[in-house]
Design brief:
The protein has one domain (12-163). Helices cover 80% and strands 0% of the residues. It contains seven helices and no strands. The protein is elongated and about 55 Å long.
């Protein structure tokens, strides 16, 4: 028994710090997504009054941006409003998919912490799913390009950083 404990301790000592930091960041991000999705499902779809308040706030933002001649951002806010409406239309399904995708991220990070290369491959799949999940509920024409680019950049940076630890992931 002492040999296994010593081996586990040595394995944890050899774990790259970057991998640990990335996994913690992944756990935090996916944890918030899971909790947010569960809270959304448990609390239910926003009432029509809450949706109306949200639309009024969006309209005020659009008015302010139009006064500043920020046409690009007016278009972005309008698209985000359409995305939000599509999300409300499939509220439970949207949250359930978000939770499932986030759980894939949790599983990937957990596997990588255990030194399994499979976790890296699962993380790549998670990253693609994270970027693509919105297309299940929203038309591609509605999603603002900058949101797609930001999501791809973040996913790409994390995949690249996780790949720096592939030599440690050997099981």
């Amino acid at each position: 028994m002492e040999y296994n404990q010593l081996e586990n301790n040595q394995e944890e000592e050899k774990r790259p710090t970057l991998l640990l930091v990335l996994c913690i960041l992944t756990f935090v991000n996916t944890g918030f997504t899971v909790l947010g999705g569960l809270m959304g499902i448990l609390s239910g779809k926003p009432s029509s009054e809450e949706i109306k308040v949200s639309k009024v706030q969006m309209a005020q933002s659009i008015d302010q941006l139009e006064k500043l001649n920020m046409d690009y951002w007016v278009d972005v806010i309008k698209r985000i409003q359409l995305m939000t409406e599509a999300m409300y239309a499939s509220f439970v399904a949207y949250n359930a998919v978000s939770i499932l995708v986030a759980m894939a991220g949790v599983a990937a990070a957990f596997l990588m912490l255990k030194g399994k290369k499979l976790g890296f491959h699962v993380y790549i799949c998670y990253s693609f799913l994270y970027v693509l999940q919105g297309y299940l509920f929203v038309s591609a024409a509605v999603i603002p390009t900058f949101i797609i680019i930001i999501n791809l950049l973040i996913a790409g940076v994390f995949v690249l950083l996780y790949s720096r630890n592939l030599n440690w992931l050997n099981k």
